[in-house]
Amino acid sequence: MRARLAVLVALVATAAGVGVLLAQYLVVAHLLDAQVRTVAVGSGDVTGVVVGVRDTVLGGALAWSLAIVGVCALLAAVAGWWSAGRSLSRLRDVTRLARATSERDLHARLDLPGPDDEIKELGDTIDAMLARLQRGFEDRERFVADASHELRTPLAATRAALEAPLAQGRFPDDVVPDVRRALAANARSAALVAALLQLARGEVDPVACEVVDLAGTVEAVLDGYAERVAGRGLAVTVDLAPSVVRGDETLLARAVDNVLDNATRYTPAGGRVRVRVGTTDGRARLDVVNDGPTLTPQEAARLLEPFHRGGATGAGGHGLGLAIVRSIAVGHRGGAEVAPAGPGAVRTTVTLPLADR
């Protein structure tokens, strides 16, 4: 871009110089022609000499004009290169800041120097936008901290209320297994709350997380739906191939659980659910196809939006399950989508990068 601006300045300067010198050449030629006519009227013997002088002067003027135009064009190109460099250096500052900015570091500002021109106006606008984003993320951090306290406090209180009597042997023997299951569920809920809050803060780093076999996770989660599947008469087919990914095991299990919960909840009684895990193009892929209403691509995609449940308002749930699935997948550098799988079927797909071996 700098070179293009320099060439443009040189061309404009050259065109202007040529125009001025051409006008000057025509004026000089006109004046000399007038002198030639005057001499011709007075003395024919001198006319040839004057014409020769005129031609010499005009030829020299043309040569010098072309040389001057060339020098001016060169100087204009140098000046254009220097001026463009100064202007574009501020745009490079904008580019560097944009590349370095993330939600974890919104404190940097451009504060562009230079004249009060369009580039400075752009820099000031970006600075104002970053200030608004910083305030927004700081508000979100405060909300997450408050939510963390409000969610963990009842879980901790419940756990303490169960652990103390259990340790003191105050529960009847036939109740102890139920209490232990409640404590295990409490621990899972606490881990899930911590993981979801970590996800909300944008602190999930798949590279720093553990290695997880997606197929094994799906198999373990699917076992928990055996009672629902049998009670509703669902025909579930499973095709699981080892697919190792790297991520937060609690969050990935929650994503799988939400997908399977959605499929087994909204499939009509006696319907079919097909679960497949495999790899494609260097990514692990979970596909769950279940019987359901015939949806357009737009209607299916909206199922990933928070609080959107399509037309299944009587099947329970809050419309957050698939939205959480997408957030977890994106947090692990993957993706999630819902699409029609033919008439009367819906496909939910989750993709995740395979772990480096």
TrEMBL record:
Domain HAMP: 85-138
Compartment(s) where it occurs, according to its Swiss-Prot or TrEMBL record: Cell membrane; Membrane
Domain Histidine kinase: 146-356
EC number(s) recorded for this UniProt protein: 2.7.13.3
Topology in membrane: Multi-pass membrane protein
Sections of the chain in a coiled coil: none
Keyword Transmembrane helix tagged: yes
UniProt keyword Membrane present: yes
Chief localization: membrane
Alphabetically ordered keywords of this record: Kinase, Membrane, Phosphoprotein, Transferase, Transmembrane, Transmembrane helix, Two-component regulatory system
Transmembrane segments: 61-82
Entry-linked PANTHER family: SENSOR HISTIDINE KINASE CUSS, SENSOR HISTIDINE KINASE YKOH
Protein name: histidine kinase
